[in-house]
Predict the structure.
Amino acid sequence: MDLSFDISLIEGYTSASQIARVLTEDWFERNMYCPVCGNYILKRADANAPVKDYVCEHCKSQYELKSKRDNTNDFTKKVSDGAYHTMIKRINSLDNPSFFFMHYKDNKVRSLIVVPNCFFVPEIVEDRRPLVGGARRAGWVGCNILLGRVPEFAKIPIISDGVVLNPQNVREEYNRVFSLQTGGVESRGWLIDIMRCVQRLDSTFTLRQMYDFVDELSLKYPSNRNIKAKIRQQLQFLRDKGFVDFTARGCYKKIESTLKIN
């Protein structure tokens, strides 16, 4: 995988945003593979297709690419995207794409991660202020993806600090993480919240420590009168999927990713 952009493509361009778009999209089409099936043909979606940029010609998985310069630290927490209501509609229909997030520097890709679509819920998408009356699209409401709210284990590295990870290992990790997909937006939300709680604890932790999050979760799910049972249910699910292990009664251990840099 060649990490360099083809700068011959930007001759005549003056807009920084256009230059970035041309370089990153060209690199992506030439180099990126589908992390689901490994196919190297990711076809550009039809013009103006809502909330997707690319489609795998083999397995039909949908993807969107977002990119920023390497010195934009806020990109790890918040990423601007398209129309807010369109994004929320896609998420609620469970037909949203997975996202690639790229950092680049000196006309080279520095890092690239992919987040499976099952980790997108309305909570991690915020609306931006409507465009003002004098704008060409006055009243249009865009959105930000709050990437900082996505559990770290769901941010699967493909390129890390200029080092390309083994594609087969990336595929295995993607499909391991994607095995956590659930059948509804609410169940997606519960899984993400429990994983974020687990993320805040040490590599070994107890059920009692998880119960310390009951008040926090009760505020978010006021209609649920048995938060402790929900916590136990989600931990059982994570054990069945190989993300935590029961080491003793009421004791757990996180199972870390085996994805390593070459």
Remarks:
- The mean pLDDT is 91.
- The helical segments are 16-31, 84-92, 167-178, 185-199, 207-211, 214-220, 227-240.
- The two ends are 13 Å apart (CA to CA).
- The first helix runs from residue 16 to 31.
